[in-house]
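Fill in residues.
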């Protein structure tokens, strides 16, 4: 069998592949831009949490929430949920590819909120940002995980901890210190699967309220007003006296 290609055939093949890729990109852009914000229908928080927990081993904290919500909405509504590239968000795992920054469950929850709610409307609150911010505050101040799976992946009585931070590094670190289980243990993996499911449950509760016009929560933390710089509320918990003060605007 000969693998030689003529220059004309090679150029033709490259043109076909390039055109196909370009048309695919254009098609995806048309699908998503023309439908943003995505249509939403109420979901069951408990069922969403169970699905998040069930698929966590594949999608991890970075995409399990997106999958659980979009899979259900794909069945209820269809596009754009059915063709949404959920796998692209697995890299949010471990606070962004293991760097321990913002917990992947919070990252993915903010993405879902933005896609479903869309840009802020004139004379209305920025609900997507409001829900995402308040979810981070809830995560930081709640004894997690709150979700109890029907079929647990481990048989331990799951320890619960309050992270006082939305960061993966701090959240996992506090739990590991309290529980005594290391990062690679099945128990720690199970804990994070339950945390993701807990966030999914809370997010669906908030999206359902928004969908019904009942979301009226105030902003829980406003760093710009409080400390004059983008920040979380507990920097001193780790950094103590080493935190520099933000400069003030001159009046």
């Amino acid at each position: 069998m000969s693998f030689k290609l003529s220059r004309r055939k090679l150029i033709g093949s490259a043109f076909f592949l390039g055109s196909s890729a370009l048309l695919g990109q254009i098609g995806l852009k048309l699908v998503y831009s023309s439908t943003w914000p995505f249509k939403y229908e109420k979901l069951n928080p408990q069922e969403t949490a169970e699905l998040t927990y069930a698929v966590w081993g594949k999608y991890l904290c970075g995409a399990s929430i997106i999958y659980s919500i979009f899979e259900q909405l794909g069945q209820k509504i269809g596009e754009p949920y059915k063709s949404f590239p959920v796998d692209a968000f697995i890299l949010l795992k471990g606070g962004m590819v293991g760097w321990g920054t913002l917990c992947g469950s919070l990252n993915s929850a903010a993405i879902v909120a933005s896609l479903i709610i869309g840009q802020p409307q004139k004379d209305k609150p920025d609900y997507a940002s409001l829900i995402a911010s308040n979810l981070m505050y809830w995560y930081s101040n709640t004894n997690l995980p709150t979700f109890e799976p029907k079929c647990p992946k481990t048989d331990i009585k799951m320890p619960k901890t309050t992270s006082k931070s939305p960061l993966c590094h701090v959240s996992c670190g506090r739990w590991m210190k309290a529980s005594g289980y290391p990062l690679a243990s099945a128990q720690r993996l199970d804990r994070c699967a339950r945390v993701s499911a807990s966030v999914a449950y809370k997010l669906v509760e908030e999206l359902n309220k928004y969908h019904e016009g009942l979301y009226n929560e105030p902003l829980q933390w406003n760093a710009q007003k409080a400390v004059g710089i983008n920040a979380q509320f507990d920097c001193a918990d780790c950094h103590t006296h080493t935190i520099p003060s933000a400069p003030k605007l001159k009046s």
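The two ends are 80 Å apart (CA to CA).
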